[in-house]
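Sample pair:
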Amino acid sequence: MTDFAESYLGQLRALVGPRILLVPGARIVVENDLGRILLQKRRDLDIWGLPGGNAEVGEDLVSVAKREVYEETGIVVSEVKPFGFGGNPLLETIEFPNGDRCQFFVMNFFATHFEGTPKVSDDESLAIEWFAINSLPPLLPNMQASIFAYRRFKQTGTFQMI
C-alpha cells in the first residue's frame, strides 16, 4: 500500500493545494454467491462505499480495481468486468474533511469470483461487510448511483453511463 504523500494524487495535491483536481480511477462491485455485495465503511467520510481508488502513473484501470479491492478488503478478485462509467460532476465531485476537492472519472467494474475472506486491510477502512443489494446502509451518492447502475446492467446487459 502506497502512503498518500507518495501517491501520484498526494504528490499532485502538494503542488496545487486544495484546488479541485480531475482524477481517474476505478470502483468495483464484488458480489458473492448469495447475491450480497461487499462494502467498505470509509474512515475519511465515515460512510459506506464500494472498494476502489485512484490510478497511479502507468497503471490501467483494471489493475486499479484489482489493487484497490485487495488493499482495502484483503481479497483477490478475478474476471473483473466493466459495467459502467461514472463522470457526472454532480455525483463525482467530493469535498473531503480537510477541504480538498476532487472530481472523479471512474470506470465501474464487477467481479463474482474472488479468493480470500474480506477483512479490514488498511487504514482507509473502518469496516468491511457483505450487504443484500436491496438492503444497503447509507452510502455516498456516487457509490449508490454505481450500485443502481450495476442493477440496471444486470437486468439489461447495457453499459451504464452514470
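The radius of gyration is 15 Å.
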